[in-house]
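Late entry, written up from scratch paper. The run itself happened at the end of the previous shift, but nothing got recorded in the book at the time, so transcribing now.
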Amino acid sequence: MTFFLEVLIGGLLAGVMYTLVAIGFVLIYKASGVFNFAQGSMVLFAALTYVSLVERAIPGWGALAITLAAMLVLAVATERVVLRPLVNRPPITLFLATLGLSIVIEGLAQTLWGAQVHGLDLGIEDVPYDVAGLSLSTFDLFAAGAATALVIALTLLFTRTRIGLSLRAVADDPLAALSVGIDLRRVWAVVWAVAGVVGLVAGLLWGARVGVQFSLSLIVLKALPVLIIGGFDSIFGAIVGGLIVGGSEKLAEIYLGGPLGGGIENWFPYVLALLFLLARPTGLFGQARIERL
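Output as recorded:
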């Protein structure tokens, strides 16, 4: 039972890391209906910018401030230059635009900082930590704490502030929100900026875990099962989906990996996602869209 709990809790903590990436998708999808495939590239850009600045002898807090400013500029410029002109275009057009944007961002990152692999040290040693007799990863606990703080901050932003209420109104009915004087362009710009901040946090944590390399942008693929299970337009769904994916993949690898030959951790979440698509296409907390024909 102790081993089972260690595996399960370790998986849940890893799932929090998936949630960080998924939340970036949810924010933009809720506000504009756009599935931002470039979110993974934004995670890479943030991690690569930070580690490159640190390697150039810029202090950690200074590098963090510069990276944050760069992510805000990148996010707002993306919304204004690329996606705003495509408003009211078919969803596939917007998706292809973000797909092309992801390649452009990766190319920009390579041009600015090079293509070499970097190690990112946040000063958190990944050593076992004893909690009630369970051996857990110190880094996973730190990442879970950082993700929890970010989720709480986002929750307060979107439930207790005027811009948050505007976002909820836009998510419910963009035309009605526009009719009562809500500036959609301002809301979209804020949402993209917040998504850039989320990308920064996710980039630092994922970069510290797996290293800063261009394959880091593929973390977007790990967020897909989380979104399908939790729902594309629910922050709470992204949290629950991340925990389900993280816990189930670790347990499946331990208890089913032997009979199936191992390595199922990489594809088991997609099996779960496929089952959810067949049984509940909108996910656990997603809202079903009703269209008049």
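The longest helix spans residues 2-32.
(Scratch paper discarded after transcription.)
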